[in-house]
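Postdoc handover notes: sequence design on the structure in folder B. Input tokens:
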């Protein structure tokens, strides 16, 4: 009976799907065994995500609660990271600021990866004039200084969380497009793709079922770098006063406020600066670890 159940179960798994599962298992095993720093980075990001998601339950104070009697206090049991120039609790503001950074990073990543993947698939699979037009548009976007372009857009439109996420996402898809196009060109002449086309499968089915899964590891790696880039860009915009507007806390505007107290209360800049540094480094380390694990599993 057990043998019959096993044979029935395996019958539903095609050789291609079994190969993909084995490849994914190999990547995860290699990642866990050989990339300790990347694994630690992943754990850090998981803990950070939980902390900012449950900021209302974890934060000891309202991040916008002003107490002029408690201005620029040092770290203590009442205020773990001390207080800012308005007496607001820095620990609470770092947590809520992390929400802003991660939401912008994730939202911008989803937009850029979705757009870049679609354009890369179309360019690589169609080829010819379609490929030429898409890649010239990609080169044109890469030639535009992204930071100044974002500054102009935000100077015209209101700097809301949605606007910032959309603008960053729509100006950071080019790298993903090039990577996905390369993966399509690498895999579209493989036997299983050719067989699927010969059997009469539609272009959408061939792309979605056979070509796109081969590009997923590269897309995942690109996603981590996109998030890190978006967090840095949002923090820079907020620091310049064109991002998230006070009194709403973000790591960038916390740094902006701290610059006036760099000599009298230098720790004001340390907490948000360290949060940005660790988060960006963690995403970069995670992406690098996944990339190396993917390369090693293919050898």
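Designed sequence:
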């Amino acid at each position: 009976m057990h043998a019959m159940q096993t044979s029935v179960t395996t019958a539903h798994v095609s050789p291609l799907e079994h190969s993909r599962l084995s490849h994914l298992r190999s990547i995860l095993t290699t990642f866990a065994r050989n990339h300790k720093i990347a694994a630690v980075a992943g754990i850090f990001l998981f803990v950070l995500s939980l902390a900012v998601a449950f900021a209302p339950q974890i934060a000891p104070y309202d991040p916008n609660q002003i107490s002029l009697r408690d201005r620029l206090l040092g770290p203590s049991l009442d205020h773990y990271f001390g207080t800012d120039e308005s007496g607001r609790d820095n620990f609470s503001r770092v947590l809520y600021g992390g929400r802003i950074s991660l939401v912008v990073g994730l939202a911008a990543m989803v937009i850029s990866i979705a757009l870049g993947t679609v354009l890369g698939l179309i360019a690589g699979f169609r080829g010819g004039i379609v490929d030429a037009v898409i890649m010239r548009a990609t080169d044109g976007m890469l030639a535009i200084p992204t930071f100044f372009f974002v500054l102009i857009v935000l100077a015209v439109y209101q700097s809301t969380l949605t606007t910032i996420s959309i603008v960053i996402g729509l100006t950071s898809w080019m790298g993903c497009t090039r990577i996905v196009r390369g993966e399509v060109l690498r895999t579209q002449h493989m036997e299983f793709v050719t067989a699927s086309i010969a059997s009469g499968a539609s272009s959408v089915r061939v792309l979605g079922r056979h070509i796109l899964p081969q590009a997923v590891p590269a897309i995942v790696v690109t996603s981590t770098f996109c998030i890190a880039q978006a967090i840095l860009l949002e923090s820079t915009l907020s620091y310049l006063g064109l991002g998230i507007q006070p009194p709403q806390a973000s790591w960038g505007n916390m740094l902006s406020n701290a610059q006036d107290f760099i000599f009298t209360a230098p720790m004001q800049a340390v907490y948000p600066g360290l949060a940005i540094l660790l988060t960006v480094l963690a995403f970069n380390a995670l992406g690098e670890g996944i990339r190396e694990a993917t390369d090693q599993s293919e050898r």
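Context for whoever picks this up: The radius of gyration is 23 Å. Don't rerun without checking with the PI first.
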